[in-house]
Amino acid sequence: MLRALALNCTLKPSPSESSGDLLAQQVLDALEPYGVEGEIVRVVDFDVKPGVDADMGDGDEWPGIREKVMAADILVFATPTWMGHMSSVAQRVLERLDAELSETDDEGRPILAGKVAVVAVVGNEDGAHAIIADAYQGLGDVGFSIPSQGGVYWNGEAMHTTDYKDLPETPEKVASTTQTLARHAAHVAKVLAEQPYPAP
């Protein structure tokens, strides 16, 4: 059984409804038929300190989230679009993952190199393509593998207030893209589990 962890980088603390939660859950649901079980963590509910170390001390709650990242085979990086960019919470997650650049496994491979990452973006403004590109770069840089077509997004009509969670049904294009993302992510995760990257 593979495991997935969805980090919802919404700015809204629980119990507020979150479109990011909805899309992240849809990705987890799409992964389930491929033998992947998962959970969602809403990062803003935790005191994640700024910094680029694995533990910033002084009540930093990132280490607990980091443990879940390390236990997962697939990371679902979910963020809203704010002012055309990923949320500040999402940026902080990337900054904290930067600590893993210097970590290796027993055979000298980057500690995140056996894991897969996909990206989910929601918002009422343009920016999803740029956010996915930025996230891919950051996640790939710290060691995650990005599967083919590993991003899904929904952008509402410009200058309107309808949220993804308020739609009467999931748009077909979003649903089909989510299915493709899940199929490819599960495939790459299984390949990496069976055939890890070569040690240096």
UniProtKB/TrEMBL annotation:
Q: Where is the NADPH-dependent FMN reductase-like domain?
A: 5-146
Q: List the protein's name.
A: NAD(P)H-dependent oxidoreductase
According to its UniProt entry, this protein's organism is Microbacterium gallinarum
